Structures are given as C-alpha cells and as structure tokens.
Amino acid sequence: MNKFFSSIAIVLSLFASLQQVQANLIEYDLDSPEHRLFLKTNPVIMKVGDQLRLVVNENPTTGFVWIYRCLAKSSEEAVFKVVEETYRRDIVPYEELTGMTMSGVGGTKILTLEATKKGSDNFQMANARPWEFSGFEQYSAENDDYFYQDIRITVQ
Asked: Which region is the signal sequence (predicted)?
C-alpha cells in the first residue's frame, strides 16, 4: 500500500513540475488600435520559454513589408529570438468562385518571438519598402504608430 501512495506522490510531483515549466503564448494584433496603444505604453512581460506572437496586415505585392530588429548588440545579449515568420495570403471571394488568383491581394504576417533569457530589450518593426528604408531612427520620426512599432520586452 505504501508503494502505491509513493508512486502516486511521484507522479503528482512530476505533473506539478511539468505544469510549472509550461510556456505561455501571448498574442497581439498590431492592426488593433487598442493593442498598438498598449504596446506603445507598456512592456510585454514574459518568462523564459514564453512566446510572443505578433499579427499584422502586410501586402508585399506593393513592396511594403515588415522590417524588424531587436536592439541587442549581439545574439548573446538578446533576451528573445524570432523563432517563426509566416505569411498567410488573404482569400478573396472572387478567387473561391472562379478558381483564379488575383494579383495585389494582401495578407497577414505572423512573427513569433521566444524569450531566451532574463533581461529587457526592444523589438522594432517598420512597414516599409526595403529599397526606400533609411533606418529605424529616421523611419520612427517620419511615421505614425501603425507603420512603426517599438515594443519593449521584459523577460523575468
């Protein structure tokens, strides 16, 4: 009987430790004015292993894409890394009806960042044409918070 209770105690303690290391997924829609305002005025608080998903409209057919960087001087100093970058093209009803694809259709860019160590850093994003982009400092001064994001990330 004691072996039975000991086995149950071990299984419960393993389950509890697995629950403690489970990473969180935090998501912000950068097309939402409320989310942009929140990110402009508040840091994103994460723990090591947590992921931050940023979702935003993008239309690369116009040349405008999201250019991004973290402010850390090197990858050793960075407190997060981009682990996934995807683009989902929008489906237009005309395409579903005809089976033909249209040019000039936008979509959604999804960036997933993962917290790698404790500290703070900024993740900057600019919606720009790469051949016209002159750098984040100048771009932030010339554009509003829809076309430029500076997201403070704190990993605890």
From this structure: 1-23
The number of residues making up the chain comes to 156
Beta strands in 5-156 (DSSP E): 25-29, 44-46, 51-58, 65-70, 80-89, 107-115, 119-128, 148-155
Q: Is the distance from CB of 128 to CB of 65 less than 8 angstroms?
A: yes
Domain count, the chain: 1
The verdict on residue 50 lying in a domain is yes
The alpha-helical segments, DSSP class H, found in the chain are: 2-21, 33-41, 93-98, 136-142
3-state secondary structure of 118: coil
pTM for the complete prediction?
Answer: 0.79
What is the rounded distance in angstroms from the CA atom of residue 40 to the CA atom of residue 151? 7
Judge whether 5 lies within some domain: no
Rounded Cα distance between 48 and 51, Å, is 9
> Residue 12 falls within a domain, yes or no?
no
Whether 16 is covered by a domain: the verdict is: no
